[in-house]
Structure formats: structure tokens, C-alpha cells
Specification:
Distance between the termini: 28 Å
Shape: globular
Order of helices and strands: HHHHHEEHHHHHHHHHHH
Strand order of the largest sheet: 1-2
Helix content: 55-70%
Number of helices: 16
Strand content: under 5%
Oligomer: single chain
Largest sheet: 2 strands, antiparallel
Radius of gyration: 19 Å
Structural class: mainly alpha
Length: 297
């Protein structure tokens, strides 16, 4: 029964989507850090962040707000998702920044900048969940990219101008690579992610937990990103092994426990939609056998 028939509202994606199943995976946190590394390589995009937010003091808050936004779009009701998108568009319309090379003022809701942020995020999410062992077939990967045109629309992009499959996403990165650089802003992001300032009592925990995870996110970047940052990365095979091991460890934590962390979007969605809506890699594996069998897209 659909929401139009008086049933529960599945939101913009719904349990039948690849996005619904993937975004409940704990490796999404590492994917989010990878996205920050990648997004910072666009000089205008990162300048917009630096001029319009207290990144160094509120980077944790920014990361949590981004996670909350993604969670609301994925698991919230249609109304909640549309309202979240409207808030983001309203904020972006009021902001501008200065080009670090030309000195020109530009709006932060420039479609080219929004497209870069979107594609870097979707590429990072898809790359990490697949490379860490989540059973996502080629057809499902294409569906994931296509589904997230919804996300692009909510931040102010024309969905028809956004890559709709993995091939189009790869072509986009090839086109935009000449514009990327690791200037002072990108290096500030890199420095923060490697050693974020925290209370002295928490430094041992940062060194034990955060630094290895941030290093793993950095290692998973494409080779051109390592070249721009000027920092070497472990061999790709080593990174893949570590991603799979980390994925196995994090996924061994009971999902019901992981999903208790605020703001609890997944548990709220399951209460709304019923236990059959539980995100699960087994659902992805079964669907992949159908979607990616010979003769299917």
C-alpha cells in the first residue's frame, strides 16, 4: 500500500532502492571523510566552505550535519526530505566567496560547484561500500548513481545535468580533473583531517582510532588526488585489504546498536515502514542476482 493510499510514506527512495540498502552501512563514515578529501581539491568549492563556515572549529559539526542531511533524504518522509533540501537551498542562495586565483566573487550555489560536491560525494560513497566488500553488482551501482539524482535536485541542480550511471560519473571526473588543485585551503583540510584538534584527554583515542580511519579514507582516493596532495599512499592492494577488514569489523557490530546513534533515521524509518524495510547486504545480494544476470542492464 502506498502513501497515496493511506499507507506509510517511503520517502524519496524507499526500501526497494539501492540507496536505502547502502546508506545503512557503517563504512559510510569513512566514505564521508574520503568525500571531504576529494571535494577540497576544487579551489572554488573549498574556498566557499572556508569563507562561509568555521571549518576548523566546527568541522565535527559540519560532518554530523552532512550525515543528518543524507540520513533525512534517504530514510525520512517525503516532506522531511523536501524541507531539508529547501533549507539547504535557502542558505546557499545567500552565500558567496572569493576565487583564490582571480579574486572574483562567486555564489556558492553555482551549479558547477554543486555538481562537483555532489559527484565527489556519490563517487566516494559508491567506491568505499563496493571496495570494502558490500555485494553491489554493476547494475546496482548504476542504479545507485541514478537514484541519487534526487539528492542533486534537492540541493538545487537540474537532475538531467547530473551523471546518471557509473560511466557518466567517470567521464565527469575526467572532464573536471584539469580544474583541480591542492592549494592552501585543501592543505588546511588535509591537515585537519589528519590531526583534528580535540581535548587533550582524547588525544590517545584520536591517535588510535581516528588517524587510521582518516588514513584509510585518504589511501582510497584516486592516484591523481594523491599526486595533488603530494602525499604518498599505500599500495592499492593494501588499501583494499584494510577496507575489507575494517568493513568486516564494523559490520560485526549489531546493526541495532549502531543505528541507535543519533539522530536514528534508520530506526525511525523501520518503525514507519515495518521490519521488512531493514537495510541489509543480503537484500543487495539477492537483488544483484536478478539485476546483474546475463542479458540484464
Amino acid at each position: 500500500m502506498s502513501a497515496a493510499d493511506g499507507g506509510p510514506d517511503p520517502g524519496l527512495y524507499g526500501p526497494g532502492s539501492v540507496t536505502w540498502q547502502c546508506h545503512g552501512d557503517p563504512m559510510m563514515w569513512i566514505a564521508g571523510v574520503r568525500a571531504l578529501y576529494l571535494q577540497a581539491l576544487h579551489p572554488r568549492a573549498v574556498r566557499g566552505v572556508m569563507e562561509n563556515s568555521d571549518f576548523r572549529r566546527d568541522a565535527w559539526g559540519r560532518l554530523l550535519r552532512t550525515a543528518d542531511f543524507v540520513g533525512t533524504l534517504t530514510y525520512g518522509t517525503t516532506e522531511a526530505a523536501e524541507q531539508a533540501g529547501a533549507r539547504v537551498r535557502k542558505i546557499h542562495r545567500t552565500l558567496s566567496a572569493t576565487d583564490p586565483v582571480t579574486g572574483e566573487r562567486f555564489p556558492v550555489d553555482d551549479p558547477e560547484l554543486l555538481l562537483w560536491v555532489h559527484c565527489a560525494q556519490i563517487d566516494s560513497f559508491l567506491h568505499i561500500i563496493r571496495r570494502s566488500g558490500l555485494p553491489l553488482g554493476p547494475g546496482q551501482a548504476d542504479r545507485y548513481v541514478a537514484e541519487n539524482r534526487v539528492n542533486a535536485r534537492l540541493v538545487g541542480l537540474d537532475p538531467s545535468a547530473v551523471p546518471g550511471d557509473t560511466a557518466a560519473l567517470a567521464a565527469y571526473f575526467e572532464r573536471v580533473r584539469p580544474e583541480l588543485a591542492a592549494g592552501p585551503d585543501a592543505r588546511a583540510v588535509d591537515e585537519f583531517l589528519r590531526s583534528p584538534p580535540i581535548h587533550p584527554l582524547l588525544v590517545p583515542g584520536r591517535n588510535l582510532v581516528w588517524r587510521p580511519l582518516a588514513a584509510l579514507a585518504y589511501g582510497s582516493l584516486p592516484a591523481y588526488a594523491h599526486q595533488l596532495y603530494g602525499r604518498p599512499a599505500p599500495a592499492p592492494r593494501s588499501v583494499t585489504r584494510r577496507l575489507r577488514l575494517t568493513g568486516s569489523l564494523l559490520r560485526s557490530i549489531p546493526a541495532g546498536l549502531r543505528w541507535q546513534l543519533p539522530p536514528g533515521h534508520i530506526l525511525k524509518a523501520m518503525r514507519r515502514m515495518g521490519p521488512g524495510s531493514r537495510p541489509s547486504p543480503y537484500t543487495l545480494r539477492t537483488a544483484a542476482a536478478i539485476l546483474d544476470r546475463p542479458g540484464r542492464a
